[in-house]
Amino acid sequence: xxxxxxxxxxxxxxxxxxxxxxxxxxxxxxxxxxxxxxxxxxxxxxxxxxxxxxxxxxxxxxxxxxxxxxxxxxxxxxxxxxxxxxxxxxxxxxxxxxxxxxxxxxxxxxxxxxxxxxxxxxxxxxxxxxxxxxxxxxxxxxxxxxxxxxxxxxxxxxxxxxxxxxxxxxxxxxxxxxxxxxxxxxxxxxxxxxxxx
Length: 197
Description:
Layout lengths: L1 E6 L6 H10 L4 E3 H9 L6 H7 L4 E2 L2 E2 L1 H8 L3 H25 L5 E5 L14 E6 L2 H9 L6 H9 L4 H7 L2 E4 L4 H16 L5
Parallel strand pairs: 1-5, 1-6, 2-5, 6-7
Antiparallel strand pairs: 3-4
């Protein structure tokens, strides 16, 4: 089985590219979706998060805005949250691998792949990238996003230029969807042949 890490900074189009891999028949582990489920109504992490960060949960699970406000500019709080979340996500990842043990290729869609050292566990790494103006426009179009919040998130992520250098493959998303999809198919062909860019 080939483990392909898929990553990219906020607003780069990673979810779109992940969907293209899935459409091509490649199993995709979506770290963000897993976290949302674990923090959703009745989620396995809700009680632990409420205990550590009071008044950040409710009937709908974790209030992401309240939790974000509690950890965004507090490194110690962020590390405490990661200590709750990361082990649970690792367990979900192991279950995903067990379910797809006979697949020749699987994709791990992990936003902070380099930042957490997860790239060391991958056979290949794909970075999804777009120009800075396109990235900013996409992020600021999101509901509830502000320039200050964007900058706070952006500052915690490895710069796109560094991610591109460290990647085995770069998939552009500031081009047509057909061009992006063609790049995805080229990556699949290359990794299955054991080739890097």
